[in-house]
Amino acid sequence: MAKALTICATSLLLAVSSGVAASAQVKSADPSGFASSADVQAQIREMLAAMKADQGFMWRPLVRDGATAAAIEIWKKPGRPAVHPAEAEYAIVLEGAGTLVSGGTMADAKVSNPNLIEGSQIEGGVTRTLGPGDVILIPAGIPHWFGVSGDRLVLLGLKLPSAR
Fold first, then answer.
1. Residue 15's pLDDT is what?
2. CB of 81 within 8 A of CB of 153?
3. CA–CA separation, 42 vs 160, rounded Å?
4. Is pLDDT above 90 for 164?
5. Distance CA 102, CA 142 (A)
6. For residue 36, what is the DSSP state?
7. Contact in structure between 37 and 9 (CB atoms under 8 Å)
């Protein structure tokens, strides 16, 4: 299972870094678009150690290409329902278990910043159980919410500009 998860995470990282790698061959041999399985596990350990006892969420970039980052997200508590108006969200579950509710409509929507609208709940969404190796793609403008089952839900996530 760990090997399959590593292959999934590596596939995402390769897809994210393919443009970086192609341009790096021309410009330089900078390996910053790559993180090994050991790097991923080390970052998860570091993030867990840095989280405060009551902290419910932490996000930290793993690899970056300018403003685009593939990041580790650690959820220990459920967040608020969210919509990213101009960005799709792609993620792979690395560890833990949780729930994804997506679609439907978001109640009490309030703009937190230009890239984030948050609400109190999602009405009429589809509920899915999440576990290691699951792949998620939430189109821009779609309400979504992550719940946590057990200790934590760890995702490798990436925001992508909307194709709309």
1. 43
2. no
3. 25
4. no
5. 7
6. -
7. yes
Whether the CB-CB separation of 71 and 87 falls below 8 Å is answered with no
Q: Which residue has the tokens 């090997």?
A: 3
**Cα 71–Cα 34–Cα 37 angle in degrees, nearest 5:** 75
Judge contact between 6 and 92, C-beta under 8 A: no
The model's confidence at residue 32, banded by pLDDT at 50, 70 and 90, is: low
> What residues contact 153, with CB distance under 8 A and at least 6 apart?
74, 75, 93, 95, 96, 97, 98, 130, 146, 147
Tokens of 123: 């009405």
Give the pTM.
0.79
Start-to-end C-alpha separation, the chain: 36
DSSP string, 2-27: HHHHHHHHHHHHHHHHHHHHHHHHHH
149 has which bridge partners? 97
Rounded CA separation 158/87 (Å) = 9
Q: Give the tens place of pLDDT for each residue, 107-129.
A: 999 999 989 999 999 999 999 99
